[in-house]
Each structure stands twice: as structure tokens, then as C-alpha cells.
Amino acid sequence: MGTDFHDKKPIFQQIKEQIEDQIMDGRLKEEEQAPSTTQLVSFYKVNHLTVAKGVNELVEEEILYKKRGVGMFVTSGAKDKLIKKRRKAFGEDYVEELIKEAKKLRMSEEDLVRMLRERMRK
Fold it and tell me: Which residues form the signal peptide (predicted)?
């Protein structure tokens, strides 16, 4: 039941983001035990080092923490950290590009806001 990886991002990054998504949508709750590296290797059908790299980045970012001999757990406050991080990335990765393209198309700020409002209501 592994996942096919077709994204251009490295697999460890995709695994990391999938764990983040599970925290964001509540499938993994703060202070709850996260899947082990072994479980992730089995599920995703990838190399142990690939999974470890993604998990270790989450530990470095203080999204997950290790309890020696017990496993990995979601840090208290992890969801808020992820929201802040992703909002910043959203602005840099999407909004800036959106604004550049809107300017090329000679769209006014009002045009862009109207378009966003219409799409958000759908």
C-alpha cells in the first residue's frame, strides 16, 4: 500500500510533507506517537535513509521529538509552527508569482481580489 511519488521534489521531502499534512489535518495530534521509521519504510516502500532524512528534518524543526526507546512524537505546538511556516512559503511561492503574472496581464488589484473572491466561494 505504498505511495507513488511523481512530484519533482525529493522523496524524503514528500514524506516529510505528508507527515506535516497529517499533523495539519489532525490525523496526527500533538503529543501523539508518530509512525516509526520502520513503519514508514514499509508503507512508502523506500530506503530507510530516505525516510530517516525526512523525519530528522522534522526533529530539527521541532515538529517531532524522539523519546529514547519509545519512538517519535508530535511536539506540542507543532501545528501552529507548521501553519506559520506554510503561510510564509505560500506567500513566497504562490502569491509573489500570482502578482507577477497579474501585472503581466495588466490586472488591477481590484481585478485580482475579485477573481480570488470568486474562486474562494466555489
Answer: none
Angle of the 96-104 helix axis to the 109-121 helix axis, nearest 10 = 120
Sequence-distant (≥ 6) Cβ neighbours of residue 77 within 8 angstroms: 30
Q: In the predicted model, is pLDDT for residue 7 greater than 80?
A: no
Residue 113's CB is within 10 A of a number of other CB atoms, namely 11
C-alpha cell at 94: 504562490
Here the CATH number for the domain that contains residue 58 is 1.10.10.10
pTM: 0.79
**CA dist., res. 118 & res. 19, Å (int):** 31
DSSP string across 5-51: --SSS-HHHHHHHHHHHHHHTTSS-TTSBPPPHHHHHHHHT--HHHH
| Residue 2 pLDDT > 50 | no
Q: Which amino acid is at 100?
A: K
Ramachandran quadrant class, 77 (left: phi over 0; alpha: psi -120 to 50; beta: rest) = left
For residue 65, what are the β-bridge partners? 73
